Amino acid sequence: MSRADDLTRLRGEIGASYEAREAFVKDLKQNVSEMRAGFQDANKERNQNVSNMRVGFRNAHEEMAKEEKAKREVFEADRRQKAKEEKAERMAFVSDLKETVADMRKENTVEVAERRRNVGEMLAGFRAENESAHRAWYGRGV
Q1: What is the pTM of this model?
Q2: H or E element, residue 47
Q3: Beta carbons of 104 and 111 less than 8 angstroms apart
Q4: Phi-psi label, residue 139: left if phi above 0, alpha if psi -120 to 50, beta otherwise
């Protein structure tokens, strides 16, 4: 074999190698492009899933907030009603207590007046007895 044949064969191998490398790079670019498209699709799908989850969480949170608000409003209304009833009971108790005290004062006033009258009568009786005893002892003239 001659040198020209060797160079021709070498040029053919270099050309084939170059074409193989170009085909490999083209396939690699195509594969990378497909993978990127797949990743982008997966990313879009994942983003959509996350977005849907966030919307679901937001809706669930809003519903829970509404339920809790309704429960709080019912609780607060019950608490206010109970407080109102307890206040009415206390007011009734205080009113009854005031009435009882007023009745006791009236009874006490009557009793005190009766005792004063009785004491006055007793004192009048004692004075009369003392005067009688004095007259009896010292005579009428004194």
Answers
A1: 0.46
A2: helix 3-138
A3: no
A4: left
